[in-house]
Amino acid sequence: MSPHRSHWLRQVLATDTDVAPALAGEAKADVAIVGGGFCGLWTALELKALEPSLDVAIVERDICGGGASGRNAGYVINLWAKFPTLVDLCGSDGAVRLGRAAAAAVAEIDAFCRDHGIDAEYRPDGWLWGATCASQAGAWDPVLEALARHQLTPFQVLAAQEIASRWGIEGHVGGGVLEPSCATVHPAKLVRGLRRVALAQGVRIHENSPLVRLERGPRPRIVTAGGSLAAGTVVLAMNAWAAGFRELRGAFFVTAAEAAITAPVPELLAKMGWENGPAATDSRFMVANYRTTRDGRIEFGKGGGVLAFGGTVGAKYESPAHRLPLMHKEFHEAIPRLAGVAAIHSWVGPIDRSMAGVPLFSALPGSERVFFGVGFSGNGVGPSKVGGKILASLVLGVKDEWSTCGLVRPPTPALPGEPFRYLGGSLVRRAVMRKDWIDHAGGQADPITRALVALAPAGLTPTTTSRRAAS
Ligand SMILES: Cc1cc2nc3c(=O)[nH]c(=O)nc-3n(C[C@H](O)[C@H](O)[C@H](O)COP(=O)(O)OP(=O)(O)OC[C@H]3O[C@@H](n4cnc5c(N)ncnc54)[C@H](O)[C@@H]3O)c2cc1C
Fold this sequence. Notes:
Layout: H1 7-13, E1 25-34, H2 38-50, E2 56-59, E3 75-76, H3 83-116, E4 127-130, H4 141-148, E5 156-158, H5 160-167, E6 176-179, E7 183-184, H6 187-200, E8 204-206, E9 211-215, E10 221-224, E11 227-236, H7 246-249, E12 252-262, H8 266-272, E13 279-281, E14 288-292, E15 298-302, H9 324-334, E16 343-354, E17 360-364, E18 367-374, H10 383-396, H11 420-440, H12 447-453, H13 464-470
Parallel strand pairs: 1-2, 1-11, 2-8, 4-13, 11-18
Antiparallel strand pairs: 3-7, 4-6, 5-6, 9-10, 10-11, 12-15, 12-16, 13-14, 14-15, 17-18
Helix pairs in contact: 1-6, 2-6, 2-10, 3-13, 11-12
This protein binds flavin-adenine dinucleotide.
The site of flavin-adenine dinucleotide has 40 residues, from helix 2, strand 12 and strand 16.
């Protein structure tokens, strides 16, 4: 096993050793899905639920869950924090509908796991969106205001004192908001559970089968090193790797998120009252997160990692965390009581960050039988369940609330070509880091830094540019 697999995958693969056969020879399917992460698997499961006789096959480069789905922090979050963007994209009614669907998806994941005997360590303990300095305080206000205009109140406002006394998270000095209906999972147990159910429902899975060529046309064909699959419809559920398609490359940035895990410290967590407390994030642009696990560990991580030149997901995405000292610093600042607790393992994973910060689904321009779902932007664990419904409706040609929702939109190239994208992106990334640091030091960022930060794709909260991209 690669030493850089996530902690979650290492835990699961210790006992789950099943590897599906690679694609070999010439084969056919009604629907061929490229990518065996949450998006591909939920799409396959949705298709089988709607049309059980459909012959669905998944072709996966690595093993199912080997991508971001087996590496993430396991926050099952809905889309309420993106509500202003959803309004820009879909109008008020559409935004409310999608927001409700994404909120329902959290509980649907729990129900699916219960129905199919998947122990994904689902814990409905909520998401705490907090502020670790005065500048971050109220980062959620525009979201809460937009929601209130629609009589929606999913967040509870909490003072710093309450966050500290309930869960021992003393570094959220600017307070926070709690979304109690969010949850956490063990992501690898979830994705490998979905794979098991998909196989049981007749989905054919081919692992260790990277797509090397897609032949377009009325009956597209997937070609791998060992075989080919001719299909009525192809779905690209490839996350950041989809940047390999020139039609999609300009629609999102390939960046990274990093994660780390500690040894179990259940006594400490019990003393803090955090063992079953919410999964937390701060409000940095390069967001820091920290959550507990069922076996008493803390997973902590950080967004805004390395950019990929030309969108190529290469070796730097298969490595220990690049910014582990910074991740420790931010984790310990947020929770000073855990200052002596350090990571025992860390990893990196690719992120497909769209300018609007929400995913997009559509047919590949010029290829009406090839659909894609991409741009989950670091928030795909819950929303990929909705993504599966959208892609299934698109594949089946059904005109319904999913296929007509505002997330179904063409991959408008919003980003310049290389080398300008990488150079410009690196400049913006540095400005974002600088702004986060200055905010924490209680300073005021200079106008150039602020102007560059405004160009960044949306993080938790939208930037000016991301709102423009959505409208
Ligand atoms: C460190 C980290 C922390 C995160 N934390 C959270 C979180 O807490 N909550 C949250 O909601 N989201 C989080 N995310 C994001 C979340 O993991 C993703 O949005 C989600 O997993 C996307 O699912 P997916 O199926 O689109 O992508 P993936 O799981 O990456 O699936 C894409 C699959 O395509 C395969 N593939 C690529 N190229 C080919 C090819 N040529 N041929 C065949 N197969 C191919 C890949 O191997 C991969 O398995 C995090 C991501 C990372 C990296």
